[in-house]
Amino acid sequence: MSISLQTWLAEQVPEADEVTVEGLDKVEMGHSAEMFTLTMVTIIGGVEQRDDIVVRLRPPEPGLLEPYDLQRQFEVMQGLEGTDVRAPRALWIEPTGDVLGRPFLVMNRLDGEVWEQNEIPAEVEAEPGRIRRMCEDMVDQYAAIHLVDLEATGLSSLGDGGNYVTRELAHWESEMKRVQRGPVPAMERLLVELRRQQPDPSPRITLVHGDPKPGNVGFVGDEVSAVFDWELSTLGDPLTDVGYLELMWAMPVGISSRPDSLTVDEFIARYEERTGFTAEHREWYFAMQVFKVCAIQLIGSMLFDAGHNDDQRSVGMAMGIELMAPMGLAALGVDEPVEMGAIYPREERMATLR
Asked: Phi and psi dihedrals of 234, rounded to 5?
C-alpha cells in the first residue's frame, strides 16, 4: 500500500523533487470508513516539508452507510475551508479505486483527543468546569455548521435541501427493508408514528452534519480542535442535527453524560442563542433520529449475520436498538411495550464469537 500511495501522492505534487511517506498507521476507531495516518515528506528545491495527513478509504461493499458518497464528503470539507467550522482540510481525492483497490480521499491531520464511549481521563474529570467548557464549544461548532453561508462557500451546489426530512425517512426505511430478515415491530411502529405525527417542513435549509455526536469531535484542552466524519453531511433541516444531539445527550456514555456537562436544556438554549433558530418539535426530531440510528444499527447487525464481516461490535448494535427504540416511541407518546423482532444475528453466527 505504501509504495502505491507514495507514487500517487508524488503525482499530486508535480513540483516536488521527491515525495516519501513515513509512519503508515491504521486508525482503530469508527464503524464505517477505514483511515490511515501518515507523514508525507516533500522535498522542493532542496527544502524538506513534513505534513501529517489522513487517508480515508471507502469501506468495502456492502457497507454500513450505502450509498457511500466520498466525493460529497470531499466537497463539503473543501467548502468549509476558511469558515468558522474546524474541519480537516481536504487535499486530494482518488475516486477510481485503481491505486489502493478502493476510492479514497486525503485530508490534513488535526490534533485532538476524541472521547465517545472511551473512558474520560481522571485529570479531565477532576478539572472544574472543563467538561462543561468542552460541551459548550462542541455546541458552538455544530451551530457554526448551520450558519455556514452556502452560496459563499459553494456548498449550495450539494443540491436541493427541501423535503429533506421526508427523504430521510424514506431512505432509512429502505435501508431497514434492505437488510431485515424478518419483522422488526418496534422499528416499524416507530416509523408509522413518525409519519403520522410529522410536523410541517422547516423553512430553513442549512448544511447539516448528519452524525453530530461527541465522538466525531476532537479536543485540545477544553476547545474543539476538529469536527470529523462528514459521511452523512448534506443540505437539509438543521433541527435533524439538534435531534441527533439530543439523542446523544440521552446516552449514558461520553462527555455529554458527565455530571459537569451541560444539561440537555442548557445545550438547546445555547444552540438557540448562537443560531437564532428555535428548536421546535424536539420530541419528533429526537424520535426521527432514534429511527435513523436504529436503522444503521440493524444494518450492522445484519451484515454480521449475513457473513459480510466478523465485527463483534455488531452485537452491541443490536443491543442499541433494544435500548433506543422504546425511547423513540415514548417521545411520540407510545408507552406500551412493543416487540423488537429479528434484530440480533442468528444463534449460529453469535456462536462464532464465543
From this structure: -170, -170
CATH number of the 122-353 domain: 3.90.1200.10
**DSSP element (H, E) containing 330:** helix 313-331
Q: Which amino acid is at 18?
A: E
Beta partners for residue 229, in sequence order: none
Bridge partners of residue 139, in order along the sequence: none
DSSP state for residue 253 in the 8-state scheme: S
Residue 331 and residue 278: Cα distance in Å, rounded? Answer: 19
Domain spanning 2-108: CATH superfamily = Phosphorylase Kinase; domain 1 (3.30.200.20)
Phi, psi (5° rounding) for residue 179? -110, -20
Q: Name 68's Cβ contacts closer than 8 Å, sequence gap at least 6.
A: 32, 33, 58, 59, 231
pLDDT in tens, 168-213: 999 999 999 999 999 999 999 999 999 999 999 888 999 999 999 9
- Name the average pLDDT for the chain: 93
Rg (CA), the chain: 21
